Structure formats: C-alpha cells, structure tokens
Amino acid sequence: MTGFLAGLCVAVLPLLAAGFWLGRRTARPENLGGLGTPVEHATFETLHTASLAAPPLRAGLTEETARRSARRLRTLLGTDALCLTDHENLLVWDGVGDHHRAELLERLAGPLESGRGEAFRLHCETPDCPVRWAVITPLTVDDRVHGTLVACAPRESAVLVRAAGEVARWVSVQLELADLDRSRTRLIEAEIRALRAQISPHFIFNSLAVIASFVRTDPERARELLLEFADFTRYSFRRHGDFTTLADELHAIDHYLALVRARFGDRLTVTLQIAPEVLPVTLPFLCLQPLVENAVKHGLEGKTGTCRIQITAQDEGAQALVVIEDDGAGMDPVLLRRILAGETSPSGGIGLSNVDDRLRQVYGDDHGLVIETAPGAGMKITARLPKYQPGVH
Fold first, then answer.
1. CA angle, 48 then 51 then 54, to 5°
2. What H or E segment, with its residue span, contains residue 362?
3. In the chain, which ranges are continuous DSSP H helix?
4. Which of 77, 268, 309, 381 has the fewest CB atoms within 10 Å, i.e. the most exposed one?
5. CA-to-CA separations, 254 to 110, 228, 240, 250, in angstroms, rounded
6. Residue 191: its pLDDT value, please?
7. 353, 340 in Cβ contact below 8 A?
8. Cβ atoms of residues 66 and 92 within 8 Å
9. What are phi and psi of 90, to 5 degrees?
10. Of 200, 223, 222, 226, residue with least CA distance to 213
C-alpha cells in the first residue's frame, strides 16, 4: 500500500508542476536563477512547495494542519484563494474573498455526498471582489470523503479544475498516509497491551507468592522483593512511549530476575555481558524482557538441575547485537515456526511472536528474531537493533 501511494505521488507531481507553470507563466516573469528551462524551474518549485505542505497533512485533517498547509497548497495552484473543509466546517481560508464562506458551505453537501468535484460561479455584490468562480474537489481516503479542497479564481478555467483535482488527489494521499501511521501506532499499542496481558498473570501470581513466603521468615527480604516487584510493574505498565533505551530495558530485566532468583534460588544462574556503548540504543518498549522470561521458562522446564542463561549485548557498528541463550529444554523448530507464524498458541514460547512482529514492523523484515533451537539443545535468540532508525526515538 505504501509503495502504491509513493508511486501515486510521483505520478501526480509532474502534473502539478505543469499546471503550476501554466498558471504562473503569464502572471509574472520568473528569475530562473540558473535552474534551467521554465518547466524544470516549475518542477523544482512544485516539489519544494509540496515538500513543505506535506508534513502538516501527515498529521491528518484538522484546523491546525489545514492552517499550516493552506498557503503552500494555494501556491501550488496559483489561485487567489483556497480553503479546506471537513464534513461540516470550513477549517481555513487562505487568500482574498473570505466573505464567500457561507456560500461555499452551502455548496459542500453535493460533493461531500457524491465524491465528485463541482465548479460554479460565485454570487457577489462587491464590485471589486477578485474571486468569481470556485472549484470544490473532495478529499477521499479509502473511498470515504474526509473533506474538500476549494480553489477560488477570477474566472472559469479548465486548467484550474484539473489542477485542483490533482492537488486534491495529492492531499488525499497524504491523509491516507496519516491514517496508515495512526493504524501502525494503534497496532503497536495493541500488541504491547496483548503482551502485558499474556505475561502479567504468571509474573504477578508467582512474584506475590514468593514475597508472601518471606513475610514471616525474612521481613527485610520480603520488603526488598516488594520494591523490586513495584519497580518492574511500574516499568511494564507505563503509559507513555512506544520505545525505550537498552539501559532501561536491562534495568527492568534486573528487577525481574531478582524476583525469579528469589523463587528458584541456586537453580538459576544468569550471566550478563553488556558493552557500555550500546546502553543508549533505542528499541521497542518491553522487547527483551519477554525473551528473558522465555529463557527462564524453557531453561527450567523439565529440569531438576541448574539452568544457565547468558545475556550479551555487543556493539556491531551500526547495530547492537543482543543475544539471549539458555541451556534448557529447547523446542521443535517446526513448532517454533508455527508459533512465530501465529498458527498455534504461543504458550510454548512466551511473547516470541509478539516481539518478532514488533521488531519487523519497526525495523523491517530483515530485523526479525533469529532463533536457534532443537529439543534438548536449549535456545539461542538473537536480535539485531539498528542504532539509528527514522521514527525510533
């Protein structure tokens, strides 16, 4: 979908450039400034103006985003006035002739309902009013009309009708990308909530049981564990941000392991090797702790002896390499693939599919989890985290 929208933008912009050039060529001479032919100059101006108008629109269609983008959109069309509306309100009027607001609002019902543009003469009793015609073009996302773009001019013009349609298509693409951004954010938030719901019952029940066991025999130890429990749950259920730092994630893991050690005692041995230079690396929130919990579960499952878990984080140039390895029961690779594909219950691998999905969403498919395992051979999970990624902060 994103590739299609990008292709549509590329196809629309040359048409906008041609319309912009035709509209401005007769208005005033341009100083080309060594940029080449008039068409090349118009193309450059159009691309530059469009790039300035796009960021506000990527936040959706609101009064604020309309205000910030309207001047740029009017420049693209070279019109005397331009306005943006939603279904009910005129969000912004940029240019002259704003006494036509009420008349335009009365004409919105048709285009909003039909999804088809309309050009019409404006009725005005002001002799020197510079706008006499208006073109209303719907803004559509997924075949739903979100609002309209209205261009006003001194006279009827077929070029303006077509140019307004192309600009409206480009604005609609930006609004669709805004919808995709919001959908992606909602999906990530939903997956975090799902992960919390999956981990919390096991963790809370076991932790409180351990703390209760120390209340009478070792009250000080019970108090320390209660603080560890509070710090970890505060981190896990925080409400702000989709991302965190490796340092904060490891700190939360340390709280988690303190509670696990209190429960299993000497049966659990954990070794950490962390390169200091990777501690500031940003990663999806609650991304490594489920992997450590998975290692604890599979490391101790079906064993009476000691479980060894090793956590390493190394600097690898543009990436941080995080490896979590246990010497436990391991898993059938076929079953693991079904879990990661969502074909079976994740009870055999706590949070693995959730973490794998989020890493792929944020960094791309090349950065999904790499898992090496076999029955009785333990499990090794590798995550490659780019140090710098657009949108990750």
1. 150
2. helix 352-363
3. 2-25, 38-57, 63-77, 101-106, 109-114, 158-215, 219-236, 246-264, 289-300, 333-340, 352-363
4. 268
5. 62, 9, 21, 6
6. 59
7. yes
8. yes
9. -85, 110
10. 222
Nearest to 111 by CA among 146, 68, 67: 146
- What backbone phi and psi angles, to 5 degrees, belong to 335? -65, -40
In angstroms, how far is CA 68 from the centroid of its own chain?
22
- Contact, 83 vs 104, CB < 8 A? yes
Q: Tens of pLDDT along the chain (393 residues)?
A: 444 444 544 444 444 444 544 444 434 444 444 556 776 666 677 677 777 777 888 788 888 888 988 888 888 888 899 999 998 889 999 999 888 888 888 888 889 988 899 999 998 888 888 888 899 999 988 778 989 999 999 988 888 889 888 888 888 888 888 777 666 665 565 556 555 555 556 667 778 888 898 888 899 999 999 998 888 888 877 655 578 899 999 998 999 899 988 988 888 999 999 999 999 999 988 889 889 988 888 888 667 788 899 999 999 999 999 999 998 888 889 888 888 876 665 554 557 887 888 888 888 888 999 999 998 889 999 999 999 877 666
The answer for 241, left when phi > 0, alpha when psi is -120 to 50, beta otherwise, is: left
> Which residues are bridge partners to 323 per DSSP?
312, 382
Residue for token digits 């019952």? 201
- Look at the block and give the residue holding tokens 């009420």: 102
- CA–CA distances in Å: residue 77 to residues 40, 82, 215, 307, 385: 17, 9, 74, 69, 44
DSSP string over 91-155 = EEEEES-GGGHHHHHHTSHHHHHH---EEEEPP---TT-S--EEEEEEEEETTEEEEEEEEEESS
Measured from the Cβ of residue 184, the count of other Cβ atoms closer than 10 Å reads 14
Crossing angle of the two packed helices 289-300 and 158-215, in degrees rounded to 10: 40
User: In 3D, which of 290, 298, 304 has the Cα closest to residue 369?
Assistant: 290
83 token code pair? 């306005």
Distance CA 42, CA 44 (A): 5
* Half-sphere exposure (Cβ direction) of 256: Cα atoms closer than 13 Å: 26
Positive/negative CA dihedral, 297, 250, 183, 165: negative
Which single residue is written with the structure tokens 């629309």?
12
